[in-house]
Amino acid sequence: MATGCIAAFTSLDSTELSIYTMEETRTNRRLSEKVLRLKTYHTSWVLSCLLMCSVTINLSLPLISACLLDNRLWGLFLLAGLLIVVGEILPQVIFPRYPIVILGNLMWFVYIILALYAIPAGMLVLILHYVVSHGSGKRRIVYDTKQLSALIDLHSQREDKGGRLSVDSVRVIQGALDLENRVAGDIMKPISDVKMLNVKDRMNIDRWKRVINWGYSRIPVYSSIRENRRADSPYQDCPIKIWGYLHCFDMMSPDPKEVTTLRSVPIHALPIVGEDFPLWDLLHLFQV
């Protein structure tokens, strides 16, 4: 079991265990917390204790069998085969496949080993700490935005990926991550490509349907060029004047059977931002 515990312990990192502790299943969360508590100790010291236990068992069993079997050769070969198959191969195959469940339920066994080999393993690790390196023995993987996006892509259900996340879910997650390093200038479009309404437009049910079919939650409202070019207008150099925007919820308030103008509909002030304005802040701005 010591060999299997080593294989299970080395197959898990702190990041993976932290994810397991957030699972909804109470049993898995409890077992993950036990293993994560073990990870808080010096990793090299824990591995040294487990390795010393494994080596002690593997060396002592041939000596015990030699005494019990009167140094018979067939007994030594039989025991060596059992040690290789049962003591090394099977634990290396089984334990890493279910590390949380197995290691979590064998924590009592691991703590016994740590108690028995604490002093010799501690002395060995202390020597190695000053001779080989000065690291703490702890390692936690933290991904940046690009690495996390690539990790999400590996979990896609596409044929070449084999993950469990749908393609749409992956796009939504990657889109949210992409907002981290993007600014308003990256998504700006020419004013000629923007769907807008004139403040003097007369709206009937057919016009409301067409606006809704545009698929936008906010529609800018502008005034004509002639009004902007009056002598007292501050917008003489601009082709149009943006009065604000019409929210999709405001389209539900007018009576669709009546012909109305946009002046009778609430027009919200349009926020003004620079090209370097972060997209996350822009998203929060529109959520207000």
Tally of contiguous helical segments: 13
Strand order of the largest sheet: 1-3-4
Q: What is the rounded distance between the termini?
A: 58 Å
Describe the sheet with the most strands. 3 strands, mixed
Structural class: mainly alpha
Q: Mean pLDDT across all residues, rounded? A: 78
SSE ordering = HHHHHHHHHHEEHEHEEH
Percent helix range: 40-55%
Give the low-pLDDT segments. Answer: none
β-strand amount? 5-15%
Rg (C-alpha, Å)? 34 Å
Molecular shape: rod-shaped
Could you explain how this protein is built, in words?
The chain is built from 13 helices and 5 strands. The chain has 288 residues and is mainly alpha-helical. The protein has 3 domains: 130 residues, no CATH class; 37 residues, no CATH class; 104 residues, CBS-domain (Roll), CATH 3.10.580. The strands form 2 sheets. The chain has a 3-stranded mixed β-sheet. It is rod-shaped and about 110 Å long. The model has no long low-confidence stretch (mean pLDDT 78). It holds the Pfam family CNNM. It comes from Tuber borchii. Keywords: Membrane, Repeat, Transmembrane, Transmembrane helix. This is CNNM transmembrane domain-containing protein.
Task: Please summarize what this structure is.
The chain is mainly alpha-helical and about 290 residues long. It is about 55% helix and about 5% strand.
